Amino acid sequence: MKSIKKVFILLFVLWFSLPVLSFGETYFIDSPEVGTLRYLYSRAKKVFPFSAFPVHGSDLLDIAEKLPPLSSEQDQHLLDSLVDEFKKQQEKNISLKGDLAVSYEHRLRTASVLADKGLVKNGMDFQRQYLSAPPVFDLSAGIGTFTGILVEADIALRQAWHDDYEPVNNFLFPAPDSELGINFDILNRGMLFWNGKHINVGLGRDKVHFGNTPGGTLYPSASLPYLDGLRISTPIGPFTMDYALSTIQARRAKKLEGKEILKGTYTGDDYDAYDHFGFMMDENPTTILTATHRFQWNFGQVKAGIGGTVVYARSNNMFLATDFIPIQIWHNADVRPNNLNMMLDASWALCPGLTLSGIVGFDDINANFIGINDTEVPTIPAGILQLEYDLLTPALKANFLFEAGATHFLWGNYGYDGEPEDGKPWGGVYLARAIYRYSPNNDGVLLPLTSPYGPGVYWGRITSSFTISDMPSLKIGADLLLLKKIRGANLVTTGYNNGGVADESQYWFFSLDLPCSYTWEFLQFSFTPAVLVNNGDIGFEFNLGVRYNIQGKTYF
Question: Which residues lie below 8 Å from residue 551, measured CB to CB, with a gap of 6+?
């Protein structure tokens, strides 16, 4: 019986591993197809129409066919090849696809240098040391039509998380107590899509990214493992509405150094606000909802958007229809409490190959400056400015992204600091802070939901990638990050007030990564040297990796 099961599993893997080209599914912001179209739109002095991902292949074909004839023969050939591949998928209509990847990564270091040494971390080191490492085994499959129904799933085996900020490799063992150290949250993706002419609907688990570039954003982004819920996109001519409604598991954070993460800012003895709230497995667990909506108008050379993200954690899980209606989740149309921010963003194609993008957000606006008696909570802004340049010559393909950003020390924070006599059971709305809760083990790891590095940060980042035409299998790049952070600013213990956090000490962190990869048929070899500096502490890292990847597709 066991032999039959093994044969069945082997046939399943081989069926989804035919070495042919895979095309015609949904595409994320870092996919080659999206990257090619972003480059071609930039060269045509137009902004890329989409700012929410993933995007369906039929929508990419639609915008590809709307591009005018390109002045460069090389660019036009690139566009024609892309359109031809999408049209092949359109003609075949129904497709079954699969992808299998097996990876190993080994890490060497001279010293452990962390970006965040505080008791309460903001996710930077977790993303660098854990999420950036590839899973040991990754199997994806999908079946669907070019327009209409599409089903996609992805299963990955990854190490469990044991608070190890000095991982040696991405292997599944050894683990503490000689256990098999697997992250049993193995379903990275499971989506049911409906793709129509003017509306796209997705239901399930998937990564999301709301942003004009692959870099930082103040919306939920690609830095998060996934979100569970509903996605809606309505491309109607130059207008687009993008909407995502998701649940976040109310996971309690791990105990660090014997100290349990605080649950809120109010600690009065006469009022127990937490009777109305709770983490998973508590007597009264809380459902955490987050909704993001964004409205965009594309003028061709310029596009502008307005939107926001709201997080709900209500007493006794009290939710209303207005919490879910995409056009109505604004502050004055909703029921409090809610942790809502507002975003304004724009992109401008300055000249062929050069695009300027910016986003500014407000987590709260204090009205005292116009004479209204408001609370002590200050205006809470954040902003990111990005300049992206794409270059393609007969000898070289290159991309550069320059980014500068800042977040207020209360960005993403939320709470209620009133007295118990106010009769508002808001103490538990700590759970409505903009925190993404991930569970690579039984406890939760906390990550910022609406910023790349958390609150109280100023940063500059430069990324670049290069491909030599004579050696298309070789890719090299650079990723430089310099940030300054307020030491006490975080999304857990910082009170929701204009307290003394802004006056606390600050520290600098610097990192430089130089990724290099070479692909030979189904194998990819990678080598990434890096240097990290934190207030005088210096460390060097060397990441060595090998990846076996095969793709398959068949048509009906």
Answer: 17, 18, 19, 20, 21, 22, 97, 98, 99, 100
For residue 81, how far is the Cα from the chain centroid?
30
CA atoms within 13 A on the CB side of 440: 22
- Rounded distance between C-alpha atoms, residue 534 and residue 510, angstroms: 7
Closest C-alpha to 463, from 401, 553, 549, 535:
401
Closest by CA to 429, choosing from 316, 526, 517, is: 316
pLDDT in tens, the chain (556 residues): 444 443 333 334 433 333 333 334 789 998 989 999 999 999 999 999 999 999 988 899 999 999 999 888 888 998 999 999 888 877 777 888 899 999 999 999 999 899 987 767 788 999 999 999 999 999 999 988 887 888 999 999 998 887 788 888 888 765 555 456 788 888 999 999 998 888 999 999 999 999 988 899 999 999 999 999 999 999 999 999 999 999 998 887 765 433 444 443 333 333 344 556 777 777 778 889 999 999 999 999 999 999 999 998 887 888 888 888 887 766 656 577 788 899 999 999 999 999 999 999 998 876 666 666 566 778 899 999 999 999 888 888 899 999 999 999 999 998 764 444 444 555 557 788 999 999 887 677 889 999 999 999 999 999 999 988 778 889 999 999 999 999 888 888 787 877 767 667 889 999 999 999 999 989 999 999 999 999 889 999 999 999 999 988 777 7
3-state secondary structure of 315: helix
Residue 9 phi, psi (nearest 5): -65, -40
Please choose, from the candidates 141, 9, 24, the residue with its C-alpha nearest in 3D space to the C-alpha of residue 84. Answer: 24
Determine the 3-state secondary structure of 88 from DSSP: helix
Q: Residue-wise over 137-151: b if at least 16 C-beta within 10 A, else e?
A: ebbbbbbbbbbeebe
Q: Which two tokens stand for residue 523?
A: 């194998």
Element of type H or E holding 100:
strand 94-109
Could you give the maximum distance between any two Cα atoms of the chain, in Å? Answer: 78
Tokens of 412: 């993403």
* C-alpha separations of 298 from 51, 302, 305, 316 in Å: 11, 6, 9, 42
pTM of the model: 0.89
Closest CA to 126 of 216, 257, 223, 256: 223
Listed in sequence order, the DSSP H helices in 56-103 are: 57-65, 73-92
The angle at the Cα of 51, spanning 411 to 31, to the nearest 5 degrees, equals 110
Cα separation, 340 vs 29, whole angstroms:
25
CB 462 within 8 A of CB 401: yes
174 prior amide bond cis, ω within 30: yes
Contact 28, 52 (CB under 8 A): no
Q: Do 357 and 346 touch, CB atoms closer than 8 A? A: yes
- The per-residue DSSP string of 369-420 comes to GGT----SPPPEEEEEEEEEEEEE-SSEEEEEEEEEEEE-TTTT-------G
Paired tokens of 71 = 């002045």
